[in-house]
Amino acid sequence: MKRLILTVLFWAVCVASASAQLVVNPTHVEFTVSADHAVNLPDGSAAVTRYEIRFYASGATQPQQASDLGKPTPDGTGKASVDIASVIIAFPVSPSTQYTAKVAAIGIAGEGVSAAASNPFARVAPPAAPANVTLVRQ
Hints:
The chain is α+β, with helices and mostly antiparallel strands. The protein has one domain: Sandwich (Immunoglobulin-like), CATH 2.60.40. It contains 2 helices and 8 strands; from the N terminus they run αβββββαβββ. The chain is elongated.
């Protein structure tokens, strides 16, 4: 019985860690659009006017940076994919810090923010360049 419990716990940890893989220098954000994405208000304006991605240091409650994603067209399954390479390039590089992100649907009546944070990611800069390069004959 004890072995069965340990086996179940092992596989649960494996599945959990596989779904939360750390991504280094992500380039795209993928999300399921708001249920109100295509809804129009009585005056004809859109219920969702845009989306915003918010970056958090892991465990933080306040975002470190937010960037406009516009209002992307979802695919047939209701998912949108947005290139964030230009947005995230300005994001601080701290290889020892893991970050997460949330997406907010924003409209005239306010905003709805994703309840769950994204998988963790890290920003890593290229390594420092070698210095004092000299060619010699030995």
